[in-house]
Design a protein that fits this description.
With 433 residues, this protein is an alpha+beta fold. The chain has ten helices and 25 strands. It folds into three domains: 123 residues, no CATH class; 121 residues, no CATH class; 111 residues, Sandwich (Immunoglobulin-like), CATH 2.60.40. It is 23% helix and 35% strand.
Length: 433
């Protein structure tokens, strides 16, 4: 090939290569294409600015929900009620994410062919100036789906029965049925004046529950928490909230069952319960009327306070223990756990031996609590300090065949099994021969 032809070919090759490189560069500079919105999504924008929701059904009252704040709703029709946050949130969430199984063009088809001339449910959503209404009609031939449409839109959505059921909420389901609009964690005090007397329950600084009197009472947390929960969680179920409340005159004619006050950090809530065991009606500001509630705390009221006492001699439970001081049977020692391992006098202690001693202390339960001063002579003294700085000091006294334990700063004493000393001395003997 002549030299001139070679140069021409090289020039053409450079021009083509440069053109391809430029096209690649231009393609890289284009913004990534946004995937097309899911065409089966009923509300592609997610109803993010939803302010009011209107639910109409031929078989029930019309319900209107209004947003009071983020995830907080109030019922404003047929009357003003606080909404159950979980149920209202479920309704709104299902509507926002509502997805159809299939979307078809209804074309010139008669809406009556899909049950849309008399829909079983109509939901109207308001977002600022925008209003959209969803109508849910009849079932498809297989009974697995219902037909739905947005008013003014010619598309027909095939929606699953589970989705329709999640939207079809009754007034009772959407109402807040709690007698006291609070939760167990924020309650500081519960007072119940009922069929067997009065109980005042207080929450200590460490979050444990106890009775106001006597002042040094330490309650079994499992039992007393059940008592508190039976009061704080009083509620009317959805079925009774769908009905009219008991007329006030009839409520007043019933015998007083209990007066209840629940005190939180910010409010004092009260309720009146009337009726007899098995059929009790409650009335409070939150319920907006008298409705039957399952009041099952009578058995807790009838228990003597003494039955609520915590009979554990040591109450550190499964908290991390930092130090144990032991005195008894001529032995005196202290073991510490500054890090991972136990040490005594700067030397390592077999963790199995230390844990055996801890288990003996942790598992010590009294058979009775007695008032006054414990009889007998002191045989042992044990002090336990947990990693958070709390300390429990207990002395053991023996009188004949009986063994007693006295906790520091408590007025009474505990009767404990005499066999406890054998176990504790055996465990301590392995640590300090």
């Amino acid at each position: 090939m002549p030299k001139g032809g070679i140069w021409i070919a090289l020039l053409l090759l450079a021009l083509v290569g440069g053109g391809i490189g430029y096209l690649v560069y231009q393609d890289e500079q284009k913004p990534a294409e946004t995937p097309a919105a899911n065409s089966t999504r009923v509300f592609p924008d997610g109803l993010k600015e939803l302010s009011t929701l209107r639910l109409e059904r031929p078989t029930g009252v019309t319900i209107v929900l209004q947003a009071k704040g983020p995830d907080v709703w109030e019922i404003i029709e047929p009357a003003r009620h606080l909404a159950d946050l979980a149920m209202a949130g479920e309704l709104v969430g299902n509507l926002q994410s509502m997805n159809a199984e299939r979307v078809i063009d209804m074309g010139a088809e008669d809406p009556r062919n899909f049950g849309l001339h008399a829909p079983m449910m109509r939901i109207t959503a308001h977002e600022g100036e925008k209003t959209r209404t969803l109508e849910v009609g009849g079932m498809n031939p297989t009974g697995d789906f219902r037909y739905a449409r947005l008013v003014g839109d010619n598309r027909l959505f095939l929606v699953g029965m589970a989705t329709v059921g999640a939207l079809n909420k009754s007034l009772g389901e959407l109402r807040d049925g709690r007698v006291f609009p609070t939760n167990d964690f924020s309650v500081q005090k519960v007072s119940v004046d009922g069929p067997a007397g009065k109980r005042n329950l207080l929450r200590r600084d460490n979050r444990d529950w106890t009775f106001q009197e006597p002042a040094d009472f330490f309650a079994n947390q499992s039992m007393i928490s059940e008592f508190v929960n039976s009061v704080v969680r009083l509620r009317a179920d959805a079925e009774v909230l769908n009905a009219e409340p008991l007329p006030n005159a009839k409520f007043r004619s019933l015998p007083l069952y209990a007066s209840v006050k629940v005190t939180t950090e910010s409010a004092e809530l009260s309720a009146e319960l009337r009726g007899v065991a098995g059929k009790v009606y409650a009335k409070s500001n939150n319920l907006d009327g008298a409705y039957p509630v399952p009041a099952d705390f009578e058995s807790y009221l009838r228990k003597p306070i003494s039955e609520y006492r915590d009979l554990r001699v040591f109450r550190f439970g499964f908290q991390d223990v930092f130090r144990i001081s032991y005195e008894g049977q001529g032995k005196t020692f202290t073991i510490e756990k500054p890090n991972e391992g136990w040490r005594k006098d700067g030397k390592n202690v077999d963790p199995a031996l230390a844990n055996t001693l801890l288990d003996e202390l942790r598992g010590l339960n009294a058979t009775a609590y007695l008032e006054g001063s414990a009889p007998g002579e002191r045989t042992h003294a044990i002090r336990v300090q947990t990693s958070d700085g709390r300390e429990e000091a207990v002395q053991f006294l023996k009188s004949g065949d009986d063994l007693f334990a006295v906790r520091a700063e408590e007025k009474g004493y505990y009767k404990i099994p005499a066999s406890f000393l054998k176990g504790i001395d055996s465990a301590a003997g392995g640590i300090a021969p």
